Amino acid sequence: MKMKKISSELQGAKSIAVGGHVRPDGDCVCSVMALYRYLKKELPQAEIDMYLEEPPATFHVLEGIEEIKSEFNTDKSYDVFIALDCNDERLGDALSIFRRARKRINIDHHISNTGSGDINIVEPERSSTAELLYDLMEPELVDTEIAKAIYIGIAHDTGVFRYSNTSPHTLQIAAELLKFGFDFSSLIEETFFEKTYVQTQIMGRAILESVRFMDDRCIVSMVSRRMMEFYQVGPKDLDGIVNQLQGVRGVDCAIFMYETGTLEYKVSMRSNGLVDVSKVAVKFGGGGHVRAAGCTMNGTYHDNINNLSHEIAAQLKKEQK
Ligand code: 5GP
Ligand code: MN
Predict the structure, then answer these.
(1) Is a pLDDT exceeding 60 seen at residue 1?
(2) Ligand 1 centroid distance, CA of 249 (Å)
(3) Which domain holds residue 177?
């Protein structure tokens, strides 16, 4: 695949900032790290900074992760800001830095992203932002650390090459990356599969309290603030619960939410493809992909389930026609 490279958009840039979405996931953290390292090599004279909320601790396997800036109170104006794995709405407190930049570039693979930069490279058929980034890089500049970050990013967004977003091209890139010889097996184990004891406990609790509805085609569970306090966990510790719920035989759509404030919940949805959960999430101000999406909702837990199931039922009904 011959693609225009990212360098063609950066001519003359003396300062570049790279950022990603709030509550950064594996693809987001790894894409930011990979691009940061790449730009430092490609433009050694330029000032390159990364802005991102503090990543989950397991990403300390990436060299240089401590260089991420998680304080956003700067009045700096960059020549270029590159927003990765999201549109401007999900940049959180980095939004003002993005807006101030002279040139804004948006690189993403979310179908719900309509493009918020001066330059938009949004390709929803891509497994991950990391995969897309790899094709925007000059191959001779990719080193082991960059390869490692791209590989982990792709692995996270494809559920370790399991989800239907994994294409032959995704695997071709993964094969090229493996040639760098890093210990991919431990990296995936440590960043994707391994959980702390409390993470495992709260997942167990959420699964135990899950409820099926709509003829058992949907499943839902919730973690309250009190539960999070009891187990001493934060939002980063709840990753993977919704995927586990989606794995129940017969379930077309899984919903997981956790309480973020009074009558406020962060919602995660997964589907086997029969329901387009991105469309559901967009209705409530969120977004994502056909099979994985999220949003923030206000109201009681039960009101939120009602509102979501109304949208899901409408889609399942259409599909039955
Ligand atoms: P997760 O459920 O793992 O947090 O997110 C699933 C997918 O939906 C990810 O690709 C994520 O970026 C997207 N997503 C989750 N929450 C939101 C949201 O509030 N807004 C938007 N636009 N996308 C979201
Ligand atoms: Mn992604």
Answers:
(1) no
(2) 24
(3) 3-193
